[in-house]
Amino acid sequence: MTLRLYDTKSRGLKEVASHNGATSMYCCGPTVYRDAHVGNLRSFLLADLISRALTLSGIKVSLVQNITDVGHMSEDFQEDDKILTQALIEKIDPYEIARKYEEKFHQDLSRLNIKKAMVYPKASESIELMQSMIAELMEKGCAYLGNDGSVYFDAHSYPGYGELSGNRIDALKPGHKHEVSEDTAKRFHADWALWKAAGKRSEMIWPSPWGPGFPGWHIECSAMSMEILNSHVDVHVGGIDLRFPHHENERAQSNAITGQESVDIWVHGEHLLFEGRKMSKSSGNVLLLQDVIDRGLDPLALRLCLLENRYRSQMDLTWSSIQAAHELLLRWRGKLSEWAGSEPSVNLWEVDSEIESAINNDIDTPKILIRLRAIEKSDQKNKRALFMYADQILGLNLDQGVEEKTLTEQMKELLDARSIARSEKRWSDSDDLRVQLEGLGLIIKDTPEGQTWS
Ligand code: AMP
Ligand code: ZN
To answer: What sign has the CA pseudo-torsion 165, 168, 169, 175?
Structure first.
């Protein structure tokens, strides 16, 4: 059975290609100026799911994920580099900012059981590569030097511009992101900077044939993907916000260089909302994986919670849904330990055709979870083997058992105090005590027979 994924460009399902048993993947990585929020992690998880699905069917995956540590400009009118802005705020060197958040990114991936990519190239270490691609684009007549010393890609030079996002070049209006300071230097408002002249900027700049400066964000992904993956990407992954202009521009650059379609399938994950609202730093509505851990919840409960929704649907994450996923995770781990005693241990896992087709039909994780719930309730004899099969995609460590923890003295005192508060109908005290207990990692439930904990 072959994996089929929804391709943004052709707007339909497409079979993933493999060449001599290998598939190449590129996933747009983080801009390392802050902690990745759980929305970012949802997009990185998508690449992991695709890669696991291919590996499960015996295909070797070469996955590249870049680290953007220069050139990603903020989307306001200031047009500042995100890394340099954060370096000023934290009063440390921009490279230190980048390395600090890069390390935290890797920690988050490992806590979410996201398998390592083959390589994580950094933009700041790929400057020569980008410069030679820019020079080639200029030679081909696709890029020009503006009168401000920056080099721009000529959007009209690529006939297929707009095919990925559905935008028509002549319908694009001026005033898109990143265009404010460049308007006078560009020939056309939808052209974009490949190399930016340093101007007054003194940090994170490099010499170039066009004078000192720094690379634009879009050229980074073209340069790295084409160089490392031999000028062809089978599956390209990113969040939906990257469809335009980032991926539209990347496609134009890469195709202009290779003279052919450089990416076979463009996969975009929909956005994650938190408690009904868009996640953004400015509105203070951002959830980090660390916040989940600080509540005493298993980080893989977040993974399970994300898997309850199809990657192509927008999803609203709530604390109660993560809590419910945490409880389900513990229940399933408990069941797997229980079943280990009754099932023969010869088969580590057994293929289930329903799960297999859900995986291969555009990674339908909600369907896999529905199937597991049905298997759990059934009287089959190979439940553990089937769960273990699914877990190769789900990545929930379902066979790790449930850690038994005993109550500390402090927990016991708080539980007693809450029980008394409830019997005396002091509801606000009872609520405060619940928050304290949850902060210590306990799950409290109120039943007609009194409070219970786990
Ligand atoms: P950034 O670090 O901002 O460059 O983003 C890294 C990845 O996260 C990109 O693939 C974005 O499209 C994706 N992303 C950003 N916000 C969200 C969100 N709320 N939900 C899902 N993916 C997101
Ligand atoms: Zn990218």
So the answer is: negative
